[in-house]
Write the structure tokens for this entry.
Amino acid sequence: MCASYYDNVLFIGDSRDYMHWMDCSNGMFDMLKTMKLLRPHGNDSQRRYKLNSIKCTNYGSIITGGNEGAIYIITPTCPPRIIAKIIDCGSEITSIDYQNNTLVVGYVNSDVQVWKKK
């Protein structure tokens, strides 16, 4: 399970393929949307996706990582659309952070990858 907060919205990812959006304004936690996340695998099939890390950015996008070892940059829409997909290490992603135009990703095999925005 993972969470990220931005602009009074709490984004929560779980191990059952879902991303939950909660409105946190006025001291309340109201469920806005629950979406099932399916990722393409192979040509036309789909497999279960475990969301391990989620990060909201100031640019209006959400960065996610999970058990398939790919980083997804998606739109905060329903359904979310993939803006970019980064596959570098191939190992399961355990953590993601994005600050000061720098993306840092930690993997289950103890690797750490760092990308700077051009």
Remarks:
- Residues 92 and 108 are 5 Å apart (CA to CA).
- The longest strand covers residues 30-36.
- The chain has a mean pLDDT of 84.
- The domain at 2-116 is CATH 2.130.10.10 (Methylamine Dehydrogenase; Chain H).
